[in-house]
TrEMBL record:
<dbReference type="InterPro" id="IPR006073">
    <property type="entry name" value="GTP-bd"/>
</dbReference>
<comment type="similarity">
    <text>Belongs to the TRAFAC class TrmE-Era-EngA-EngB-Septin-like GTPase superfamily. EngA (Der) GTPase family.</text>
</comment>
<feature type="binding site">
    <location>
        <begin position="119"/>
        <end position="122"/>
    </location>
    <ligand>
        <name>GTP 1</name>
    </ligand>
</feature>
<dbReference type="InterPro" id="IPR015946">
    <property type="entry name" value="KH_dom-like_a/b"/>
</dbReference>
<dbReference type="InterPro" id="IPR027417">
    <property type="entry name" value="P-loop_NTPase"/>
</dbReference>
<feature type="binding site">
    <location>
        <begin position="187"/>
        <end position="194"/>
    </location>
    <ligand>
        <name>GTP 2</name>
    </ligand>
</feature>
<feature type="binding site">
    <location>
        <begin position="56"/>
        <end position="60"/>
    </location>
    <ligand>
        <name>GTP 1</name>
    </ligand>
</feature>
<comment type="function">
    <text>GTPase that plays an essential role in the late steps of ribosome biogenesis.</text>
</comment>
<keyword id="KW-0547">Nucleotide-binding</keyword>
<keyword id="KW-0690">Ribosome biogenesis</keyword>
<dbReference type="InterPro" id="IPR016484">
    <property type="entry name" value="GTPase_Der"/>
</dbReference>
<feature type="region of interest" description="Disordered">
    <location>
        <begin position="371"/>
        <end position="393"/>
    </location>
</feature>
<keyword id="KW-0677">Repeat</keyword>
<dbReference type="InterPro" id="IPR032859">
    <property type="entry name" value="KH_dom-like"/>
</dbReference>
<feature type="binding site">
    <location>
        <begin position="9"/>
        <end position="16"/>
    </location>
    <ligand>
        <name>GTP 1</name>
    </ligand>
</feature>
<comment type="subunit">
    <text>Associates with the 50S ribosomal subunit.</text>
</comment>
<feature type="binding site">
    <location>
        <begin position="299"/>
        <end position="302"/>
    </location>
    <ligand>
        <name>GTP 2</name>
    </ligand>
</feature>
Amino acid sequence: MLPVIALVGRPNVGKSTLFNRLTRSRDAIVADFAGLTRDRQYGQGRVGPRPYLVIDTGGFEPIRTEGIVKAMANQAELAIEECDAVIFVCDARAGLTPQDSRIADFLRRCGRKVILCVNKAEGLSDIAKAEFYELGLGEPLLISAAHGQGVRDAVEAALADFPEEEGDEEEVLDENAPRAIKVTVAGRPNAGKSTLINALLGEERLIAYDMPGTTRDAIKVDFEYGGRPYELVDTAGLRRKGKVFEAVEKFSVVKTLQAIQDANVVILVIDAKNGVAESDAHIAGYVLETGRALVVAVNKWDLLDSYERERAALDLEQKLHFLRWARMIRISALKRNGLNHLMRAVDEAHAAAYAKIPTPKLTRALLEAVQRQQPPRARGGRPKPRYAHQGGSNPPVIVVHGNALEDIGESYRRYLEAFFREKFNLAGTPLRIEFRTKDNPYVKEEKH
């Protein structure tokens, strides 16, 4: 078992900067705003040959408060329960605060090893840590997460009581074991993305709060469903560009788009009560542009009466008409209704996105399609598709070879796409068809 280190402290002391330093990543959003991180963020770090897990948390306030601050405190407390050691981060520039003292009181009672780190100490002398002795947590360590100063010493101190297990480095992964499917959950703010992930996990892993914009980072969670491994990524809600006011939210948009790009399957969560918004169509368009497999989860379906359900179905058909290839699953994340159907659709979309179709089967299907309906004539002749092969996956690419294929129009391309989808069960994934015309060896190049 890898040792686990939790990063705890009040808002804006540099926990996410330290997380990125320890994991050698940019997974956590970092900006000069208090309260930027809200959910727990997990990553893997390494000091020398030794690996460990690290948990980033939001600003911690041990006193029972209300609203989003209380939810953030709950996330920090869960991280402390999960960890083997806590790195308590304070701010050398701001000095010791009453909130630091309240956190220290809580940590003394938690039963975990605590390493007190005074961050943002670049260029400061040991005098900067003098006032932090009164927290009663041992020797404060001056560090700079932004510059790496003292960070290795802090991690080694946190891991000192956890001897390295022999053979960890030589562990060999089973090549035949199923790989985790990367599933990104996207949608506009307050559509129920975090509630859906919590419902799938069966625990309050992410903050789910009735306020748009609760999630700001892209949070990764590993879990199993039906015996199959998945990596779920909860993302910040995307809204129209004109409504992206905060610089923080602009960071979140970048993280969301990156998460969609890295996904195997995207779950687009639609709020059935409020209908399909313009931002929903924008997200769907980006998923289509990147070629990712897609499942549409129509959430809060249980809140609609029969008339509202008819209107919602019509709204989905009209505004997401370009996603007819995607499965649309009616769910209630809060009541855990429809989750089995949703995950089955995710599996089907993933299988379609990575389907391997032999060239002989593709060619026979192409010739059958042409026999049913030939391409329209153009420029006095008729294009002649000859054979097809697969040119890629995620999304599947079918390359069609023949003569005069540059004259094939968009309507015939759509016909072939629909034919191949039905023939090879490619629902849930975009499908791209490329036409390549065979050069005519009897046409001589013009002499200049």
